[in-house]
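[audit] Reproducing an earlier prediction to check determinism. Same input, same settings, fresh worker. If the tokens differ from the archived copy the diff job will pick it up downstream; this log only records the rerun itself.
[audit] input (96 residues):
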Amino acid sequence: MDSLIRFDVAEYNGVFMVVVESDLLPSDASIVVIPLLSDYPAVRHLNPELQYDGKRLVLATRLIAAVRRSALHRTDSVADQGDLVTRAVDVLMGGV
């Protein structure tokens, strides 16, 4: 099982996922992630386009989920775009 921290990108069943769970929480068997998709309809601020692996992928924020850590394989990080991810989660939870 790979060690995962916030804004890491991990592969799950062929889909890239961004870890959005705080690093301050105690470790659990599951972790909260949001998929990065190439063909997801973008809503301003809710679904930012992130540069990853030479492509622009949409953060599908409404598809937020918890998955088993053991099912994820870390591939990289989007920490340099973390503000966009945080804003998207804020918009999802607070509407602003």
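[audit] rerun output stored. Observation attached for the diff report: Residues 82-94 form the longest helix (13 residues).
[audit] end
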